[in-house]
Design brief:
single chain; Agglutinin, subunit A; Hepatocyte Growth Factor; 6-stranded mixed beta sheet; 5-stranded mixed beta sheet; elongated; binds 2-acetamido-2-deoxy-beta-D-glucopyranose
Length: 523
């Protein structure tokens, strides 16, 4: 439930002035602040402007319940419009005038003479002969409403985030082979990339996903035969019961119900997976998904670090120098670190029949192209980075072994800047004890020193000034720590947003003292 609850709690400013009107005639218009929507007859659904980011989007939402819920968005990937926009209904459809001309959000197949926001949630354009020339039910985004279908060849795309309805990273496709399948957006439609399937491959062309008025989800083939029930059956259809189906931001598709009489929140009736680590691609490259209290968490491979902390899909990268065939780096020794009970996409370039783990390890260490191996007790499968679709699975005895570089001598750890050294790598760490403020500050790359507060700004200016030779004033004498030491001392850092900058600042308390530590990481 958690997921939709927060989605629905999203700050949602619907316009105050609304028109209760079942037939919308040519020449009608809407603006974000006055006459912002056209309501359905009962007032349950509204078509028009809703708040999105720092402006407005045009779409359909449930207006008749306390938790306003967006079910469709026009041109969802267009930037939000400002409050001076006007949506105009003409025979050619619905358009927003812009400096470049009309931006059509809805283009009917024939001339539209009137439109109607129906109580089903379908927004329909009719010609003068009362035939439908366009309907929102034919253009679903991430949601299906009762009575709506997903035709063969069509797909739903998740939203980017709970507050941003533009296209996200997961999709649900009604394939031409009859199979209903979930994938990441950046993959081909093949089973290796699927993370959900109705297992109806081969059921023929024109299989359609139906969402019945009673909230029943099922597949019909071209002659109308029910070939698969996605949900077990129909649900109560008492007055005041609402249903919707959506592929959520987290990649799982869920059937929700809402009881108007009980003034309740949306609750989950059914979901494609209870395990939130199932959607492939939730965690980025070189990271794997672990469930903690049923919530997914992305972890980096050992001795890797997050590319962009706070964004799980950005993945992880090495914090050591990679092994090389020529010019092997004498400052590192390479060993294999074990990750038990994990599964990954297998894209091995070589698979050896080996039953001894040590032989598998040795085989990778001696092969400078080898960056990881998967070992299952009988096969040793050599991999190159990046690894993807990783997740912990206690049901497997498979393990991943990752080749990692360990500094030969602590002093040559390139992540530590030594006084007098001019070497400034991307992962340099410098700590400065500021005796006059009792603050300790270190930056991962001091060329990117960012103001955290007044005190630290001073430290940064001084550092920049002495950047070249690191002749630091005594009061800001540098002290060296290994990153791991700091991680321990600060209890793994707490993440904070850096005001005004796009980068991430980590803050933690040194255990046993009240001294705050701030870390700026280059993005
Ligand atoms: C809407 O327009 C159609 C076709 O002109 C008409 O049949 C219907 O009665 C109208 N409905 C209302 C509520 O005006
Ligand atoms: C809102 O629309 C109604 C009906 O079309 C119209 O009478 C009214 O003047 C409009 N209000 C504003 C502020 O444009
Ligand atoms: C709306 O206002 C913005 C600036 O706030 C301006 O750039 C734009 O041209 C205006 N659009 C219209 C349709 O007036
Ligand atoms: C599938 O549906 C399309 C459009 O409705 C139709 O043109 C096509 O002939 C159908 N194919 C089959 C095999 O029924
Ligand atoms: C309808 O589809 C079912 C299942 O694929 C098939 O067994 C049946 O023969 C079909 N009927 C017709 C009339 O095509
Ligand atoms: C689907 O469920 C309905 C009852 O809800 C049942 O009549 C039908 O046989 C089921 N279809 C399949 C393919 O299991
Ligand atoms: C997270 O990272 C991915 C890949 O680097 C990027 O496409 C996406 O826009 C980022 N998301 C956010 C919310 O910054
Ligand atoms: C190894 O470290 C030494 C001293 O820090 C440095 O001079 C040398 O360039 C490093 N070697 C490589 C291959 O990076
Ligand atoms: C791996 O799974 C087995 C059970 O299948 C369990 O006994 C073992 O503790 C797990 N190892 C880790 C590191 O989770
Ligand atoms: C897997 O095993 C680890 C260690 O034994 C445990 O902490 C974790 O909760 C288990 N996860 C699941 C999903 O059972
Ligand atoms: C070092 O700091 C002290 C006190 O802040 C100051 O008086 C002195 O001039 C500084 N020395 C250098 C070399 O910057």
């Amino acid at each position: 439930m958690a997921c939709l609850a927060c989605l629905l709690a999203l700050a949602f400013v619907a316009a105050e002035a609304q028109q209760m009107q079942s037939n919308i005639s040519q020449g009608s218009s809407l603006t974000p602040t006055t006459n912002s929507t056209w309501l359905s007859r009962s007032g349950l659904y509204a078509f028009g402007f809703y708040r999105q980011g720092n402006g407005y989007a045009v779409g359909i939402f449930l207006a008749g319940i306390p938790q306003k819920t967006v079910v469709w968005t026009a041109n969802r990937d267009d930037p939000p419009v400002s409050n001076n926009a006007t949506l105009l209904f003409t025979g050619d459809g619905l358009a927003l005038p812009t400096a470049e001309g009309q931006n059509y959000l809805v283009s009917p197949s024939g001339s539209a003479s009137y439109a109607s926001m129906l109580d089903s949630g379908n927004f329909v354009l009719y010609n003068s002969g009362r035939e439908i020339v366009w309907q929102s039910f034919d253009h679903p985004t991430d949601t299906l409403l009762p009575g709506q279908r997903l035709l063969s060849g069509n797909e739903l795309f998740s939203a980017k985030s709970e507050a941003d309805h533009s296209t996200g990273i997961f999709r649900l496709k009604m394939q031409n082979d009859g199979n209903l399948v979930q994938y990441h957006v950046d993959t081909p439609d093949t089973s290796a990339y699927a993370y959900y399937s109705s297992l109806t491959d081969g059921a023929g062309e024109n299989v359609t996903l139906y969402f019945g008025a009673d909230g029943h989800l099922y597949l019909l083939n071209r002659n109308g035969t029910n070939i698969q029930n996605i949900t077990e059956g129909g649900l109560p259809t008492d007055e005041g019961k609402l249903y919707l189906m959506r592929i959520d931001v987290d990649g799982i598709f869920r059937l929700y119900s809402h009881d108007l009489k009980k003034n309740a929140i949306w609750s989950v009736e059914w979901e494609s997976s209870k395990d939130k680590c199932v959607p492939k691609g939730l965690c980025g490259f070189n990271s794997y998904c672990v469930l903690i209290d049923l919530e997914p968490d992305c972890r980096c491979l050992p001795r890797f670090e997050s590319v962009n902390p706070g964004n799980q899909t950005s993945g992880c990268e090495r914090n050591f120098v990679a092994d090389a065939c020529k010019n092997r780096n004498e400052n590192f020794t390479y060993t294999m670190e074990k990750l038990e009970n994990t599964t990954w996409e297998d894209s091995s370039y070589m698979s050896l029949r080996l039953s001894d783990e040590d032989d598998c390890i040795q085989g990778c260490l001696e092969d400078c192209n080898c960056e990881a191996v998967f070992f299952d007790g009988t096969k040793c499968r050599k991999q190159r980075l990046p690894l993807r679709y990783g997740r912990r699975d206690n049901g497997t005895s498979d393990r991943a072994l990752i080749k990692v570089g360990v500094p030969t001598k602590p002093d040559t750890d390139p992540r530590i800047v030594q006084p007098g050294s001019k070497k400034k790598g991307r992962t340099d760490i410098l700590i400065i004890g500021l005796s006059f403020t009792a603050l300790i500050h270190f930056v991962v790359d001091f060329r990117d020193c960012v103001v955290v507060n007044g005190d630290l700004e001073l430290a940064c200016i001084r550092m920049s000034a002495v950047n070249g030779d690191l002749e630091l004033n005594e009061s800001v004498a540098p002290r060296r720590y290994a990153y791991e030491e700091l991680e321990k001392m600060t209890n793994n850092f707490k993440e904070e947003l850096d005001r005004g900058a796009s980068s991430t600042v980590y803050k933690g308390l040194i255990l046993g003292s009240q001294k705050p530590v701030a870390v700026k990481r280059k993005d």
